[in-house]
Amino acid sequence: MLIFLPPLLLAQNTTVTTLALFRSPRDVLNHLGTAKKWQINTPATPVTDSGQISSASQQALGVLKECGLRSVWQESLRQKDKDVSVHVLEFGDSSGAYSVFTSGLSAAGKPVKVGDQAVFEGSDLWIWQSNYLVHLSSPSPGKVTANDLTGLGKEASQLIHSRAELPNLVKQLPTHSQDPGSVRYALGPQSVQSFQIPLQFAPLGIDMGAEVSTAKYQLDNQTVQLVLISYPTPQMARKYEIVLQDPRRLTDFSGAPVKIFSKRSGPLVALVLNAANENQAEQLLKTVQYTANFTWNQPLPEEEIAAYMRTIVRGIMLTMALLLFTLGAGIVLGLLRLGAKLWLPFHIFDRPEDVEMIQLHLGGKVQPRTKS
User: Fold this and answer.
1) Are 237 and 264 in contact (CB under 8 A)?
2) Could you read off the pLDDT tens digit of each residue along the chain, which spans 372 residues?
């Protein structure tokens, strides 16, 4: 039986080298371009200068901090006379990356099927995937084609591996008559300011941990904007809903009152701007219903992933060791019984006095009972 002890001991002291399930920005850049035969012109380096970070993301540093920016890495690639500059921005979770991604969108952006979402802004390609934002551009856009950037973008998407779902507040936006290119998402007041919504949000407590999503809709040949504000609690939503009852407190950037129609559902407050009348606004407001949906959008640290992998592998090895032990014990017992029958002059197993068999005699004739 001692031959089965090593697997049991090994299962308790296994060390596992895990695969890189979640690549770092540096790993993504180091492997980028190999499939398309690009050479690394400038190796991957971190960006620490605040001006360069804002330039790489085209967003103010305050917006990036609000969205949980962790690091920014850059690299340049070359293929013959083509040069491509690549920036990878890493955020704390996918919601922060998506917020910065939508903050930089314009009405002229062209969607591309790369990553979770991607869009061409002029000659630049922006990709949102998981908690990463990838920015590909070229100092010589005349030589680098859209297909070149799209090919590198798809390669970067494969290197990142993990995917993410849209934030729950974005899913709450109605899709009927929606302009897909107008969807925006913000995690705080500074991100909201980049959306250029004609409304001052200070009286609505956006700085109290609220999230904002917005989109434009075509209703009756008129562009109407829907704004959803999600507060941490229904009590906070009820508190700031009172502000909506006083139109004088809600103004645009010029100080003029803004005509809005509103509705509250749980911690969610919906605002309709630019509606011609209440009936038109009601077409959007009646479709807004709060539904709770919890998603884990924060990637696990590599240490936790390694710990989980070790636990799984140890469990598998322990199970295999127990199966081998059971199989070995059955084989040994069978050999002992067979050896005892062949070589011992007396019976240890299967002795006649120990063998009992119940017979029902179902096929025999039933003997009639006789009276005595």
Assistant:
1) yes
2) 444 444 444 444 444 444 445 578 999 999 998 877 899 999 999 999 988 998 888 888 889 999 999 999 999 999 988 999 999 999 999 999 999 999 888 877 899 999 999 999 888 999 999 999 999 998 877 789 999 999 999 999 999 988 888 999 999 999 888 988 899 999 988 888 888 787 777 788 888 889 999 999 998 888 899 999 999 999 999 888 887 776 666 666 666 777 788 888 889 999 998 888 888 888 888 888 776 655 555 565 667 777 888 899 999 999 999 999 999 999 998 888 888 778 877 666 666 666 566 667 676 665 666 655
Tokens of 20: 């890189």
Q: Do 144 and 83 touch, CB atoms closer than 8 A?
A: yes
Residue 197 CA to residue 272 CA, distance in Å, equals 11
Counting Cα atoms < 13 Å in the Cβ hemisphere of 337 gives 9
Using an 8 Å Cβ cutoff, are 280 and 224 in contact?
yes
Matching CATH number, 23-164, of 2.40.50, 3.40.1350, 3.30.2130, 3.40.1000: 3.40.1000
* Domain map (residue ranges) of the chain: 1-20+308-372, 23-164, 168-285
Q: Which residues contact 82 (CB under 8 A, 6 or more apart)?
A: 138, 140, 143, 144, 148
How many CA atoms lie less than 13 Å away from 276 in the CB half-sphere?
A: 10
Phi, psi of 183 (to 5 degrees): -70, 130
- pTM, to two decimals: 0.72
